[in-house]
Amino acid sequence: MPTPTPAVRRSDAAPALARVQALVRLLRSLVLPLAVALLAFAVGLAPAWAEFQGVDYTLTNQNGQDFSGQNLAQTSFAGAQGRGARFAGADLHGAILTQAAFPKADFSGADLSDVLMDKVDFSGAVFHNAVLRGVIASGSSFSGADVTGADFSDALIDRADQRALCRDASGTNPTTGVDTRLSLDCG
To answer: How far apart are CA 168 and CA 146, in angstroms?
Structure first.
């Protein structure tokens, strides 16, 4: 005759459940960055990481700084703070902006193509006539951003951000000739 299994009391299950929940949170924090990195390599962003050639502004305070018109291709701003920073007309092709904060920053006319910009705060930022082709912007916030004339062709953007951007999207990018609403797949 089989031995009966003792019933698990609610007080015994609570610590186990808390441990499982903590493990799930840990796995989420590790899996998403890994998935973004693998996706970046899959779509050809590996050279920006593997052959880093730009200036390293990682984890720096760049609030209010003026980078307008500068060549910042393959530069790292990972984890940087850039509230109100100006990047108008700058070349940021292949840059890394991961987990940075650029609220109210001005990226007007900037080349942000192939930039890794996951988990970035772009709330209230200006992307007027900017080129954002092929960016990876998963987990980023574009709340209140101005994307008039921006080109988001082949960009990876969260669905909620895409829908929000489509509400106010208009114009045609003067550099690429691409309609902003079409590049965002507004439908």
So the answer is: 8
38 vs 79, residue with greater confidence? 79
Question: CA-CA distance, 117 to 87, in Å (whole number)?
Answer: 15
Please answer whether residues 157 and 139 qualify as being in contact, where contact means their C-beta atoms are separated by less than 8 angstroms: no
Name 71's Cβ contacts closer than 8 Å, sequence gap at least 6: 90, 91
Residue 35 — pLDDT band, cuts 50, 70, 90?
Answer: low
Helix (H, G, I), strand (E, B) or coil at 115: coil
Question: Per residue in 68-113, pLDDT tens?
Answer: 999 999 999 999 999 999 999 999 999 999 999 999 999 999 999 9
Q: How many Cβ atoms sit within 10 Å of the Cβ of residue 149?
A: 23
Residue 46: count of CB within 10 angstroms of its CB: 12
CB 88 within 8 A of CB 65: no
Confidence of residue 187 (pLDDT cuts 50, 70, 90): confident
Answer yes or no: are the C-beta atoms of 115 and 96 closer than 8 Å. Answer: yes
Q: Quick check: helix, strand or coil at residue 25?
A: helix
